[in-house]
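hey team, just a heads up i'm posting the complex here instead of the shared drive bc the drive is being weird again. everything in one block, sequence lines first with there labels, then the predicted structure for the whole assembly after. its two chains so it's a bit long, scroll down
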Amino acid sequence: MENKDIMNIDKSMFEFAQIDEKLHDTKLDAKKVGYFKDAFMRFRKNKGSVVGGIIIIFLLLFAIFAPVFGGNAYSDNIKDNTYLYYKKLMPKSSLFADLGFWDGCKTEEMNVNSYNYYNAIGVETGCNPIVEVKEFDKVERMYTVKSDSYYKNGMVYMTLTAEEYKNIQKWQDENEIQVIYPAVDLSKYTVESFKTDANRWYVIDQRGFPVVDNAGNYQDNYLKTGNDDYTSKMRLESDPYNSGDTENAYRYARLTGSSTSGGYYVRIFTYNYFIYKYGFEPAFLFGTNDLGQDLFTRLAEGARFSFLLAIFISLINLTIGAIYGAVEGYFGGAVDLTMERISDILANVPFIVVVTLFNLHLSKQVGALGSLLFAFVTTGWIGTAGTVRMQFYRFKNQEYVLAARTLGASNARIMFKHIFPNALGTIVTSSILVIPSVIFSESMLSYLGIINLETSGFTSVGTLLSQGQSFLSTYPHILLFPAIFVSLLMISFNLFGNGLRDAFNPSLRGSED
Amino acid sequence: MAKYILKRIGLMLFTFLVIITICFVLVKLLPNKAPEAFGQDQALIEARREQLGYNKPIMVQYFIFLGRSLLGGDWGISESLYVGTDVMDLFSQKLPATVMVNLYSLLLSVPLGLAFGIFAALKKNKWQDHVISTLVMIFISVPSYVYAFLVQYILCFKLGWFPLLVDTGTNFFLPSMVWSMFPAILSLAFGTIAGLTRFTRAELTEVLTSDFMLLARTKGLTKSQATVRHALKNAMVPIFPMIIGEFISILGGSIVIEQIFAVPGVGELYIKAITAATPDYNIFMLLTCFYTFVGLAAGIVIDISYGIIDPRIRMGAR
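-- predicted structure starts here --
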């Protein structure tokens, strides 16, 4: 403490701090927080909503990009005629396949006959559909097995042109993967259905049971006569050709048609044929449906369509609802009463009746999609109109509206320039929440069979669900993935919507802290 | 109060009439004659069509419809689905299944929903509340048909506890019948339980923090006494009308659930009537009237029950 005498400080010690400066209001140090920024900040605090938002973005990205990047030679051509060889495959991820789950296998019970049937595919090709026998019930004679759905399809008969036949042989030699398996001596089969079933390559009795030798092995029934033009090195190990016996060698094809326009009737192993045709081993993340289409890309396309439909409807509803609600709320009185009556009547028509009527009246002229759009728009805007009306009632008697009117602003200008921006947050929230409800309604109506978008060539989540419903007990995965998608979408939109509603409600400001 | 009720009912009838008029005209504009087929008594159908005035102008038909069908209860006969059967008979055969499935589901979900809601409100912001709230969030969001699939796959198919579909029978009090309806009842109940839990929790937490609760406690009531006698009673004001509304809408039922579990109810009849090759318009008209009426009635009963329960609203309505 040096300067103790603070009462008597010499005047010369003082100097003016701002003698040459003009004093202004300083700018606020803090950043300005506008309505939307404030809403965003409060939205961010709600963890659940943020998670919901992230899931929605993820689902959107899936819908937009999965058909583009997730597609491949197989899934891009959705009407390929070889699809039916690969129908109802179980979900398989090459990443997890070695760990014993998500591997395209399912546990099922089968009788001895089926067991022998599938086992034979494994004996011939080395790719056994029976991965593991878990249990054998000696009384019921039933096996409980883990079976690989990708191998289970086994062989098919196919008629190839000479060129295709050569190409496959060439590819076989290059890749050392056998696609064409020896032809079978059909004359030994008495039952017609055995002759057309390409998986029968062994000697069987009347009932279809394999006739085995003393060691319990299947006895082959390959064709050993005729011309097959087979030049590939890929032959079965048991082929007498390998030991030089070309006379008794297995024949790999049966000639059909005339010598000039003939074809080769061959047995093709579907799994390897897939590799030949599409260049990679079949492994479908979500499996395939009953038409053999890849569910992963189908779901993404369905999701994309559903999103587009929902966003489109939401925009139309926003436009109609905003205008209708604005007029109602702004003018009030008799106008409001009349318009409320009209929307009240429309709102009370059961939605399912609206859809039915539009479908019956319009689907012939504008297609299933068009009539669905009309149905959604007819009653969909009422909710938005109600929200807008409420907001207009709230703001229309504020001073700034009076000021604008004093300055000569027209009704339309006051409504859309002055009041509407203030109500925007609430309105946007309500129209975003239209999206999940549209997707939900569409999926339900498709599921019930009231609308069928497939007739107009569209795939939506709803059509996928309705395709899957008949395979609930046998192939639940066809239904499971679309159902998961819808559920996830609904949950995340609910979380997101709650957060958004709170964030845009200024009266809740500060209450969370 | 009576004036208010009368006004509401009058308004409702007006709305109902307008909707029915629109639907009637739209249906009449459709080609509505099923192609003739073997095994149908064409003369009978023609006679009924003549009697219902099908060959007269739409305006005349409309008044015939109002008098004969809406007031007289004669809705014509099924023309393409159950040819020759009286539509009203069909409807009254199908209604019990819908009502019973929904009634059972409601009887299951109301006590559970209330209990969960009260429990969550009392444990507000503790882990029990968080668990319940999260589950409620999930169960409210997931569409009912997804539960239905899960219930059907897991409980009926994998575990084999219940039959896959509802038994065919008309005695809805038989234990075996109830057992076979249980998956449908359960699938319907999930959503209702979740909705009721959320609503009860929200209302009760609001009441629990109000001043009169503090007064009740200072008066010397124990916490449970105060909760049951004061908080719950006040929280019930908005909850009770909601439950009443649910009871009215059980008539409408859930079409999806009926479809999945093959409940022989009204929803199934509706779907069949409109997805038939030639839609059955008589059934469609009856069910449209029915669904519209149930929807309107539910709304009006909810509003009126508010007034009956809460004296403050009763005074305001006068």
